[in-house]
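Weekly structure sync, notes
Attendees: PL (lead), two postdocs, one rotation student
Agenda item 3: pending single-chain targets
PL asked that the sequence for the first pending target be pasted directly into the notes so everyone works from the same version. It is reproduced below exactly as submitted, 58 residues in total.
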Amino acid sequence: MKQAASSKDVTSDIALPGIKANTSATDDRVNKQLQMMMFNGERWELFGPILEDGGPAG
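Predicted structure, written out during the meeting:
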């Protein structure tokens, strides 16, 4: 649990490029970043910047 509660800038092959996971002893949320997508009629396209929720957990 100590390692899971102290990850810093962890990237994964299943996350979008630029998305990083961070946890701490007081905030165990892994997904705090997102990027908007829009369907263009054939496929999904990313748009806009990576958005981050810096607010308190809960």
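Discussion points:
- The two ends are 20 Å apart (CA to CA).
- The chain has a mean pLDDT of 87.
Action: rotation student to compare against the earlier draft before next sync.
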